[in-house]
Each structure stands twice: as structure tokens, then as C-alpha cells.
Amino acid sequence: MKLKINRSEFAKAVAIAQRAISSRSTIQILEGFCLKAADNIVTLIASDTEITIKTQLSAIVDEGGDIVVNARLFGDIIRKFQGDTIDLSVNGTTMLLKCEQSTFTLQCQSTDEFPLLPSFEIDHDFTLEGHTLKEAIRKTSFAVSLDETRPVFTGVFMDLKNDGIHFVALDGFRMAFKTVDVTTEDGSAIIPARSLNELLKILGDEQVRVQLSKNMAMFSTDTTVLYTTLLSGDFFNYEALITKEYATEVEVDHRSFQASLERASLLAKEDRANLVKIEVSSDQLKISSNSEIGNVEELVPCTTIGKPVRIAFNSKYLLDGIKILESESLKLHLTDSVNPCIIREDDLSYLYLVLPVRLAEQG
Amino acid sequence: MKLKINRSEFAKAVAIAQRAISSRSTIQILEGFCLKAADNIVTLIASDTEITIKTQLSAIVDEGGDIVVNARLFGDIIRKFQGDTIDLSVNGTTMLLKCEQSTFTLQCQSTDEFPLLPSFEIDHDFTLEGHTLKEAIRKTSFAVSLDETRPVFTGVFMDLKNDGIHFVALDGFRMAFKTVDVTTEDGSAIIPARSLNELLKILGDEQVRVQLSKNMAMFSTDTTVLYTTLLSGDFFNYEALITKEYATEVEVDHRSFQASLERASLLAKEDRANLVKIEVSSDQLKISSNSEIGNVEELVPCTTIGKPVRIAFNSKYLLDGIKILESESLKLHLTDSVNPCIIREDDLSYLYLVLPVRLAEQG
């Protein structure tokens, strides 16, 4: 292998591929990038068995070839180089890297043991705008379960329906739901939240092609492909949770509500339950919390349609959802102290649902 | 106690006092601020027994008093408040905090068990510019020893001499030395590096009054006083290390030298020794390092006066000193492969000395 490559372009590609390198891999060869050169294209491949990333860029390739090089060290070196151009050549399993007055010689490995790229039969194939996919991930993936004993809920459910794709994440305490307007055939896939979070860091605003099979998903841009394994199992019947009926609608300023909840949770977090109580009256929300060290009471002006409600929440679950919203005012849909609260913003394609905490004293 | 206070000014004062709150205090009362109000002045005191900070600000005090309040929670609340003015009142050991539509009630403690401010006889009393003291701390405190079995070397030695104050830190591998031009009587103090690092975060550019006794130091600005215990014991005879003689002077561009060393240490750190070799010739430095995974060679142009030298260092110690320097070019004073390297910048009041690593193969 013998090539010349632009340093800053190469550093960007290396940073993308590095997202699939696990810091605690038990498979030695997967601590490395597979680096291939042919036809003036350099390809980097990295995998942690769950996620595989392939990214490509142009280079002046005088002699093709392939090699596996330690990803962390190689990445650090490329990032620390200062010139415009890097000369890279490989002789046997020895790599020579030159940039201005720096010369590195690195011992590498042959690609013989590096896993092949996943291959699979594609059942669904559609295209999304980068910013649309990023928003759907950002507004749902935080709500997945961290409980590894029920793995399906550590993923985001992509439900391909007539009215678009539903992105759904839930953990038994709250649910985040986003519809993306795209036409596909019916189907579904549960994508590990970790894979989506890495995808989020890689994506720009370019179009993303999504391909799904029974066990794998593939997200492709012009230069980069992320492959991820899927989670298998049945997802929760989330649609039953989304009721259109409610007794009380509260409209409240987003930032004031969030700031008051954040202050109230300073005390709520002193106890383990993170408990905040909310009393809705016709023109204000009273948020309160008690712990051994003290009490807090916050008043937030609001516009209420419907009957007064008293309800309690784990403040963490309420805040997680409110923090990622963007509109200036929020609408809360409430029924009573034991049914879920649904939070909506201006964009009606999104909703966040939180289950209340039942209080012994309530009656 | 009953007072009105500006929120953002109070938040700043709280952040300063919080620097003396230890996250792992075993003395329950020291998890709190002592808060005093009298004569339209609010005083906050915090202590971890080694460091004590007292800071003051104006307020409208309707009724004086004192109380101890949990520092972490109080700090979080003050920071999260959004209005201009905070109303604070204390009834017994219950504090009421109001800011706009937020009301907190906090259970507090009486000040009976809170330690008194240190009192001591002052042996030395002088004033330094804030930026001068900050520079002296920043350029020396990083070089102290982390070895708690020889506590004197975990501090910065302030040696009060005829030609000014010498700030000295050393750990057996390197020494940082800075002279500050101020007239005082002879004396000395060893100040814990941790205390100086907290002082660094508190100080602005205002003048600082320094008062020393046998066991304590006191650093005062208009609003804030930091008291610290001193380390007792004999410091090293550091002046014997600062030789004026050398065989070779190398002048090198600061940023190029640093970048090359940083790249070389990517390989050096793969082995535990962090070893980099430097070969000085008439017009270039060759920096090299080897590890099992590879080799690196860096060439840096330089201007050399004197004979060629081959020498090896732990790259961490070399880089620590070079990183904090400011001038565009550096001068290295070398004698041979076994004597220390002294690094100087334009400002001749500072020097950094690093001991070489002796190589078995050198002859």
C-alpha cells in the first residue's frame, strides 16, 4: 500500500470510524481499523460486533492494499500531525506514516482475521433527511430502558406504518414517541439506542438511506455506512398508551416550567424518590417537594382548560422529556392523579408520556 | 436574620466560599457554610480544616444573625434562582429563601459547633499584584510531588529573599522556579499546592495581601480571605540545582517543539517509562521514541551554540513544563546526558529544570 492523503479529511474519517471502536473489546483484532486502499479511494472499517462503520474518502493511491492498524494510536497520530498531506505506505505488516518532519513506523496486522462486512437480505429500503432522522433519535433514544435483562426495551422501536415511521422508546416509567412522515411498506425493527446515539454523532444534514433486514439495519450517507445488529423480541403495544382523551389541558411557558422543576428537584433528589407534586388550578401550577432537609414551593403561571388536578411525578422522568423540547410553550394533558401525563409541543408529531407516582395520602 | 441580597452577586460569593467545602468531609458541620449578617454585610465562611475561606458582600440587612446551612444544596438553589433579588430570613434554625415565585424552607444548624476563624501572630506581611501571584502559582504548583509520604514536597516553597520571593516546586524528577520582585524580610513558608490551586480559582487581578505566620498563611483581597495551614519540615536546597554553567544552548520554536514532543509521547506512553530521546546537533533536534508497537522520529529546526548532546527524558516531565510557558521561543541549557536540562523562556524570572533518564546503551 502506498498513498498520499489530505490530513484534515483523513482525521475526520478516522474520527467517524473510531465511533465503532469499543474501549473494552475482548477481541484483539477489533482494537484496530481495517484500512484499504484501491482506485484512489481509502476505506476505513471498524467494528465492535454490534456496530460496524465503513467510511471512505479520496486519496492518491499509488499502490493498493489492506492492513489492520491500532485505532486509538493511529487516530491520535493523525490528529496530532500538523502538515497538509500525509504519506502512508505499508511494507509487509509495517506501516510508515510521514507528515512534514514527523515519521512514524507502526507494527500492524494482516486483515485475514478482520471480520467481513455484514451481508443480508434487505426487506425495507427508504431515505430520510439527515436532520429529520437526527431529531427522531434525539427525542426518543434518551427514554429507553437501561435494564439489560429486558433487552428489547434498551432499543428504539421503528414501526413502519401507513402514516409514517413511528420512533418509540419506553422504559416502564415514560415513553417518547415521534412520527416521521415517509412512505414505506409495513414492518418494524428495534434498534439498539447505543447504535442510534453513535449514528447521531456521525450524521450531518445529508440524506440517509435506511435499509432493514430481519436482523440488521444499515444507515448510509455518500461516504459512510453504519451497520447495526437489531434487538429481537416483541415490543410493547405502545399505541394503547396514547389516549386522545383527557380531563385537563394546561398550557405553560416551557422555560419557566423547566426552571421551576429543576429547582424543585434540588430537594426532590435529596431523597431517592425524586418526588415532586404538582397542583393544577385555573391559572397556576404549584410545584412542591419535601425532604428531611426542607421544602420547596414553586408557582408557575399557566392557562388551564378543565378541572383542577393533583398529581405527583419522579422529577427526573418529567425533566428528561421537557429538556429536549424546543417550543416556547408546552401543553400538558392530564386526566387524574393515576393516569399518565402527556406532554406536547408545537410539533404535533412528537409526544412524551410520563406515568405519575401514586401517593399514599391522595384520595 | 432577615435580609435582601442581589442574586448574581450572592451566587458569585457562594461559588468562592464553596471552594473550601470538601466533598468528603468527615465533620458534618463542615458540609455547611457559616452565614452571618450584620451592618448591611453578609459574610460566608467555609472550611475543610486545611483551607478556610471567608468572603463578604453588601446586602440590606433588616435583622442580623448567624446560621449554618448545607453548602452544596444552598449553592445549587442560589445558582438556579432566576430573579434579581433574594429574600432570606431565619427563624430558629429554619431558613426561608424567596426569589420571585420560588420559596424554599431549609433546616439549618446553629453556629455553635462551627470552628472559629484561625487566629495567629503575623511574621510577614506584604502585597502582590493578583496577576503576579496567579502566574507564580500557575507556573510552579503543577510540579509538586503527589507523594503524601513526604508531605513538604506536596507544597510550593515560598522563599523570602533579598532579591524577591522564590516560588519553588519539585518532586525529585523536575523543578519549577519563579522569582517575584517584592521587598520583604527573610523568611519562608511551604504552602500546600491544593490551597494555592483553590486560591488561583478565586483571585482576580486585584491586589493580594499575603500574611505569614509559623503555621498559617492568609491571602486577602478586598472581599475575600483564604487561610491555609502550612506544611512543616525542611525543604530541599534547591539553589544548588540552579547552575549557571552549561555546555550547549539550544534555541527552539516553542510550539513546534511542544507538538513534536506530544507526537513522540504518543508512542512513549505505550510503555510505562514515557521515554523520549533527544539528539541535539548544530541546526536540529531529533526526537525519537520506540515501543513494541512502533517507532517515531521527529525533526525540529533549532539554533545550537556548543557541542552536540544526546539525552533522554520522561516525556511527561518535559511536556508539563513546556505547556505552561508563553514565549514564542525557548532556550534549553544542557551539559551532557546525565546532568539536568534547564528550560528558559523570555521571562528570565522563571526556569524549569528536568532530570534526564540515564540510558544503559549510552556511553
UniProtKB/TrEMBL annotation, chains A, B:
Question: Which parts of the sequence belong to the DNA polymerase III beta sliding clamp C-terminal domain?
Answer: 241-357
Entry superkingdom: Bacteria
Q: Which Pfam families match?
A: DNA_pol3_beta, DNA_pol3_beta_2, DNA_pol3_beta_3
Claim: DNA-binding is one of the keywords in the record: yes
Q: Where is the DNA polymerase III beta sliding clamp N-terminal domain?
A: 1-118
Q: Which InterPro entries match?
A: DNA_clamp_sf (IPR046938), DNA_polIII_beta (IPR001001), DNA_polIII_beta_C (IPR022635), DNA_polIII_beta_cen (IPR022637), DNA_polIII_beta_N (IPR022634)
Q: Which keywords fit this entry according to its UniProt record?
A: Cytoplasm, DNA replication, DNA-binding, DNA-directed DNA polymerase, Nucleotidyltransferase, Transferase
Localization terms from the record: Cytoplasm
Domain DNA polymerase III beta sliding clamp central, residue spans:
128-235
One GO MF annotation is: DNA-directed DNA polymerase activity
Self-association or partners: how does it assemble? Answer: Forms a ring-shaped head-to-tail homodimer around DNA.
Q: What does this protein do?
A: Confers DNA tethering and processivity to DNA polymerases and other proteins. Acts as a clamp, forming a ring around DNA (a reaction catalyzed by the clamp-loading complex) which diffuses in an ATP-independent manner freely and bidirectionally along dsDNA. Initially characterized for its ability to contact the catalytic subunit of DNA polymerase III (Pol III), a complex, multichain enzyme responsible for most of the replicative synthesis in bacteria; Pol III exhibits 3'-5' exonuclease proofreading activity.
What's this protein's family per the entry? Belongs to the beta sliding clamp family.
Name of the protein this chain belongs to: Beta sliding clamp
* Species in which this protein is naturally found: Peptoniphilus equinus
